[in-house]
Amino acid sequence: MGERPAAKKTKSAKTNKSPVEKPAAAKAGAKAESRTALVRRARRINRELAEVYSYAHPELDFENPFQLLVATVLSAQTTDLRVNQTTPALFAAYPTPEDMAAADPETLEQLIRPTGFFRAKAKSLIGLSVALRDRFGGEVPGRLEDLVTLPGVGRKTANVVLGNAFGVPGVTVDTHFGRLVRRWKWTDAEDPEKVEADVCALFPKSEWTMLSHRVIFHGRRVCHSRKPACGACPIAPLCPSYGEGETDPEKAKKLLKYEMGGRPGQRLKPPADYPGLPASPLGAE
């Protein structure tokens, strides 16, 4: 097993402390980590990720709440890249909820076919568009209790839309987020709503949306499901699951994805401060 990296210095560090050791809760025979220690460690991880991913952002291309809602529904069981490659033609054909509500199902299915499960997704898109047209005046509502009444929209999708289109704080529990917060021992829950509640309790509300982006970025780039790049992880000293993946620094670097590995990201139109390359349009990979 490789040697655990020293803690990365952060701008918020006020003293020259020795490297952070493996969390007490992870040491053999050690007593369980206290609630206070857990909160401190979780918040330090968030600060470290904020420096590493200062450019963290939603990885779906969108220009308005309706586009983000549709893109998020399409992102189920596929990559954000595939959604971003699919939505330009989709939004050109159906720019408003009224347009999509009147769509011919077969035509819509063919447009979104690259995202998979296209029949079920087309049904949801038409259904939510009809609801937006008939119940919300053609506008995407800015309340979670309204959003989750739309076909194909659950808490995860609602929190994505609220946090990124309306500025309403929320934690987005996708597969990456759930995997990482369990590895970090922030929760042992599997149910997304319980995970959301446990994580929200560790942070001030103002951090929830950006925390979601940072954790998801880290999960996609470094802390992978099958083989996390532990040896290249900037928060390794704070991780009680260090060693589950590759610990050799050079081997770990080869596992890094997207801009961390020198390859394009998932957005065709990334933010101006994104340090990587934009993705290619559909068919141009």
UniProtKB/TrEMBL annotation:
Annotated segments matching region Disordered: 1-33, 259-285
Biased composition regions of type Low complexity, renumbered to the chain: 15-31
EC number per UniProt: 4.2.99.18
Annotated catalysed reactions: 2'-deoxyribonucleotide-(2'-deoxyribose 5'-phosphate)-2'-deoxyribonucleotide-DNA = a 3'-end 2'-deoxyribonucleotide-(2,3-dehydro-2,3-deoxyribose 5'-phosphate)-DNA + a 5'-end 5'-phospho-2'-deoxyribonucleoside-DNA + H(+)
Record protein name field: Endonuclease III
Family: Belongs to the Nth/MutY family.
Sorted UniProt keywords: 4Fe-4S, DNA damage, DNA repair, DNA-binding, Endonuclease, Glycosidase, Hydrolase, Iron, Iron-sulfur, Lyase, Metal-binding, Nuclease
Role, per record: DNA repair enzyme that has both DNA N-glycosylase activity and AP-lyase activity. The DNA N-glycosylase activity releases various damaged pyrimidines from DNA by cleaving the N-glycosidic bond, leaving an AP (apurinic/apyrimidinic) site. The AP-lyase activity cleaves the phosphodiester bond 3' to the AP site by a beta-elimination, leaving a 3'-terminal unsaturated sugar and a product with a terminal 5'-phosphate.
HhH-GPD domain location: 74-221
Listed GO biological process terms: base-excision repair, AP site formation
Obligatory cofactor(s): [4Fe-4S] cluster
Residues that coordinate or bind [4Fe-4S] cluster: C223, C230, C233, C239
NCBIfam families with a match to the protein in the record: nth
InterPro entries: DNA_glycosylase (IPR011257), Endonuclease-III-like_CS2 (IPR004036), Endonuclease3_FeS-loop_motif (IPR003651), Endouclease-III_FeS-bd_BS (IPR004035), HhH-GPD_domain (IPR003265), HhH_base_excis_C (IPR023170), HhH_motif (IPR000445), Nth (IPR005759)
Enzyme class, UniProt record, top EC level: lyase
Note accompanying the cofactor annotation: Binds 1 [4Fe-4S] cluster.
